[in-house]
Amino acid sequence: MQLKDLASIELPPTADMHVHLRQDAMMELCTPLVEKGGCDIVFVMPNLTPKIGSVSQALEYHEKLSKIAPNVKFLMSLYLHTGLTEEEIEKAAKSGVVYGVKFYPAGVTTNSQEGVLDIEQLYPVFAAMEKHDLVLNLHGEMISTPASAVGKQVDPVVTVLNAEPLFIPQLAKLHKAFPKLRIILEHVSTRQGLEAVRACGPNVAGTITAHHLQITIDDAVGDVFNFCKPVAKTPEDRLALVKAAIDGSGKFFFGSDSAPHPVQSKKGPGATAAGCFTQPYVSQIVLGALEEAIEQGWIQADEVTQEALEGFLSGFGRKFYKVPTSNSTKKIRLEKKGEKIPDIMKSADGAVEIVPWGRGREIRTLSWV
Fold first, then answer.
1. Considering just the CA atoms, what is the radius of gyration of the chain in Å?
2. I want to staple 317 with a disulfide (CB 3.0 to 4.6 A). Which of 15, 81, 113, 231 is the partner?
3. Boundaries of each Amidohydrolase-related domain copy (predicted)?
4. How far apart are CA 232 and CA 189, in angstroms?
5. Segments forming the whole domain that contains residue 145
6. What's the CA gap between 108 and 246, in Å, rounded?
7. Do the Cβ atoms of 308 and 248 come closer than 8 Å?
8. Is 37 left (phi over 0), alpha (psi -120 to 50) or beta?
């Protein structure tokens, strides 16, 4: 498929299996943008304040989101914490809205302070998840070595660049202990992460973001709005991700990890927020990354087939989560009309401002047909 020669392309609605929709005013701004990005189903992250740690909280959050965007199917998740019981897992499986449990290593990313310190302590929860067929969603990074340890004997030293490869043994360990448990290595950012997912059985998959298909570590260093966790890695890693997105294996599918933050928390004194806000343009950004990869000669045009593209953006994720393929007769149409990503997006009252990833880039215009 020679994307650059296609003035228009039609696809099934995108399934975004990793989104952050936040809460309060930020939720009100971001949730309607799910459909703008071409999505009719999304898997929602639970790292709010307070966390979504129980089925009742997930149901309440689901109701709020559904009122804002009634045409979107919201798959909810629970935050994995030491107070999560086997009984709550059973309740989640019967809820009809909770599809997974999110594993955050404690302190690794936004609102993860109550995350996991001892994986084996939570084995009874994983056993219950395996029994009741809930998905385990892994933020697959080790915690970076603190600056206070510099000069001391620390082995291994963990940085944002090797945090994912160093986590991989935990994935293999969990898969061996619970072979029937469905596991997703979220937002894979390295060649090693891709290889680890491929080395596991069919119950293990990986999500790939739109921005990791577009940028490398140099881009993250040069622009605070490209900073995310996990950080973008090397050009070789980016190329491996692009190839995985079109390999048609079903082992990898789309999860944007779109993470909105107020502009003040992304730049200025003390700004450390990690996240790229891609939600309004996720389908277009993926197509743009593949088009660039073809133009650069990294992949061949005939490697980007309609089947592989539809599988990555829509079908594979739905199949892994065991939700029906979209029964809507609607499709999304993406056309070259010279549209550009805006510099900033604001709430109606101007109180919330977010800088979207890729500001100023030309993208295809998306419409529902």
1. 19
2. 15
3. 85-205
4. 6
5. 3-368
6. 29
7. yes
8. alpha
Asked if residue 37 lies in contact with residue 69, where contact means CB atoms within 8 angstroms, the answer is no
Q: How is residue 273 written in tokens?
A: 């927020």
**Number of domains within the chain:** 1
Residue 90, H or E segment: helix 86-95
Q: Are 312 and 254 in contact (CB under 8 A)?
A: yes
pLDDT along the chain (369 residues), means of 10: 93 98 97 98 97 98 98 97 96 98 89 86 97 97 72 76 95 97 98 98 98 97 94 98 97 98 88 94 98 96 96 97 79 97 95 96 97
Helix or strand run (H / E) with residue 67:
helix 55-68
Long-range own/partner contacts, residues 345-349 (CB < 8 A, 24 or more apart): 345/29, 345/280, 346/29, 347/25, 347/28, 347/29
CB atoms within 10 A of CB 85: 12
Neighbours of 360 (CB within 10 A): 9
Inter-CA distances, 366 with 4, 49, 303, 310, 338, Å: 16, 33, 23, 16, 12
Q: Return the residue matching tokens 């660049």.
A: 161
Structure tokens at 1: 């498929």
Q: What CATH number is given to the structural domain containing 309?
A: 3.20.20.140
Cis-peptide, bond into residue 13, ω within 30° of zero: no
Residue type, 266: K
- Helix, strand, or coil (residue 100): strand
Residues paired with residue 15 on neighbouring β-strands, in sequence order: 41
Residues in the chain, how many?
369
Contact 18, 37 (CB under 8 A): no
Residue 147 identity (one-letter amino acid): A
Side chain identity at residue 131, one-letter code:
K
- Token pair in block for residue 318: 């739905």
Question: In the prediction, which pLDDT does 70 show?
Answer: 97
Q: Give the three-class secondary structure for 369.
A: coil
